[in-house]
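ligand=WQD
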Amino acid sequence: MKVLVTGGLGFIGSHTVVELQNEGYEVVIIDDCSNSSEKVLDGITAITGKRPLFEKIDLKEKSKVEDFFKRHTDVQGVIHFAASKAVGESVEKPLLYYENNIGTLVYLLKELSRKSKSSFIFSSSCTVYGQADTMPITENAPVKAAESPYGNTKQMGEEIIRDTCKVTEGLNAIALRYFNPMGAHPSSEIGELPIGVPQNLVPFITQTGVGLREQLSVFGDDYPTSDGTCVRDYIYVVDLAKAHVVALQRLLGGKNKTNYEVFNVGTGKGSTVLEVIKSFEKVSGKKLNYKIVDRRPGDITSAYADTTLANEELGWKAQFTLDEAMKSAWDWEQKIRS
Ligand code: WQD
């Protein structure tokens, strides 16, 4: 069965391609390599023993998307990762984000609407909840006004899919709201490759550990949490990748309850920034150089998932601990810097 993975050379996309191939799916990747490299194909091949099909296409080029679906009429499922994802950049360049993340989504849905049956998995984000009023966060928590154009593209993306499913027979979709993805494949063949200075906590920690950055700034220790630092739900990327496979299987097997569903994908456990640092120190045996600085504007205090719905409906649960995920991130960082 052929599955299209857009953004399949990226961080979460590449791990999902591995899990799909392990389950026997034939994968075709579309990626424009704007934030990834064709070398990722070698890593996927080394792990799975199979090289996925790959087409370098920019999904903003509508005619190329049309042409792709004419040539691959046997695509039965689409997992759509391709998107721009830097929150700060989205504030500077909103139209770039709306064009990249919304325009491309519309083109893909147009193609899928032409088919008699199709299954679509969308990369959404816990960012749609903003600072939720209660923890853990269930899928019923209200979607708050987006803090950035990036966050808005995830909210709008969900709405566009929901509205399209309502009127398109045969189109079934699931939006997965990720919490904080981290880690790398245990083989260290694929992992996260942030361009420039990492904005996210875990790659900043591992880059500091390996000596690429001098010091980690911890953004605020005066939040109302156990140790004063912010709480997030760090989900291991391999667990997250597997959630995509079971979500796709749910749609392909006709097990979905409605033709548009939403699931949180997290561990259900919140960790503070200082706990994440401790995990790094434990698995690496190194002391991390860090200092407490002012709060980062826009940060919320706390976000962790209620995963009951995904546990019960998808039969999926995160398997790996923070330490295991951190160990994989550290192994990967050391490998790519050696
Ligand atoms: C985690 C924690 C920081 C860096 C991001 C995206 C968001 C969504 C989820 C996709 C926070 C602290 C970080 C550093 C620090 N992604 N931190 N020093 O903020 O939860 O959100 O992932 O949809 O859109 O922005 O993740 O990794 O940036 O931060 O102290 O150098 O680490 O304050 O508490 P965040 P993050």
